[in-house]
Write a structure and sequence with these properties.
The chain is 20% helix and 30% strand. By secondary structure, it is α+β, with helices and mostly antiparallel strands. The protein has a single domain, classed as Ribonuclease Z/Hydroxyacylglutathione hydrolase-like (Metallo-beta-lactamase, Chain A, 4-Layer Sandwich), CATH 3.60.15.10. A hairpin with a 2-residue loop joins strand 6 and strand 7. The protein is globular and about 55 Å long. The termini are far apart.
Length: 274
């Protein structure tokens, strides 16, 4: 019996004697099945192979990025936030080993895990069991959980404060339960928004964008993007980190509004005439 992992998206499945016949994450239109076909591995196989290692790097005070090298699955970055002696793992990556565990424990361990959306569920149950931490997932994305666990807490509504100044905010968009993390105490009390790719920082790191499907280039409706932009007025932040280690260091809220306006003009045929 193995907990098989999809090699394309990196999401781990419930224990089974045989590889799953399909990955529900990858077969859905927001992701994709590799052109080489569906393939599977396990965390044990990845560790034994010796190919991968986990990189834990300090980004700024009380914030650490966690990456897999070489890249695996979607290649996202997870973050460890230290807030009032409460450590939160924001989003998840598939690979971790004893060296990872040692490093995380030296930073105070993990008190809770919170996810932006299903593409980053990865091996979240393994992380939760290793560090004895609950997992917070918005109930609107419950159907996408591929490995059930008593560690998972499905929260509801628009807002959940996990710790003073550390708030989950459901804004939807990319997924119905799409969630961002408002860290009010980050960046010297000026606030940091960690957004997965519910909001995606573009190449020049001066603008952001919004998509229903990134690999398949399916945009969101303009009304959805306007709603997301308006929600930003409720949050406290000046800096933003996305799922692929792109950062807007200053005036992040204003840049989201400006980007949303450009997006809406483009979708509605007002930005250009071609």
């Amino acid at each position: 019996m193995n907990n098989y992992i999809c090699e394309t998206c990196g999401v781990q499945y419930a224990r089974s004697t045989q590889e799953p016949t399909k990955c529900i994450i990858c077969e859905e239109e927001r992701q994709y099945v590799s052109s080489k076909g569906q393939s599977w591995t396990t965390l044990e196989t990845m560790i034994e192979g010796g190919t991968y290692k986990t990189l834990v790097n300090s980004e700024e005070e009380s914030l650490y990025s966690i990456n897999t090298n070489p890249s695996f699955g979607i290649g996202q970055t997870a973050y460890l936030i230290q807030n009032n002696e409460f450590n939160l793992l924001w989003d998840c990556i598939t690979y971790f080993d004893q060296n990872t565990i040692k490093t995380i424990n030296e930073l105070g361990g993990i008190d809770a895990i919170a996810l932006s959306h299903p593409h980053y569920y990865s091996s979240q149950v393994e992380w939760a069991e290793t560090f004895d931490a609950p997992i917070y997932i918005h109930e609107d994305d419950k159907e996408w959980v591929t490995r059930k666990s008593e560690k998972i807490i499905f929260w509801s509504g628009e807002t959940l404060e996990l710790n003073k100044g550390l708030v989950l905010q459901r804004i939807g968009g990319h997924f119905k339960g799409g969630t961002v993390l408002e860290w009010k105490n980050g960046n010297g009390q000026n606030g940091i928004l960690l957004c997965g790719d519910i909001i995606r920082v573009v190449a020049d790191q001066e603008w952001v964008s919004f998509m229903y499907s990134y690999p398949n280039f399916i945009p969101l409706p303009s009304a959805t993007v306007e709603r997301i932009s308006n929600r930003m007025n409720e949050f406290k932040f000046t800096r933003l980190y996305d799922a692929f280690h792109r950062v807007i260091r200053e005036d992040a809220a204003q840049r989201i509004h400006r980007s949303a306006n450009r997006y809406v003009e483009a979708i509605n045929g007002k930005l250009f005439n071609t």
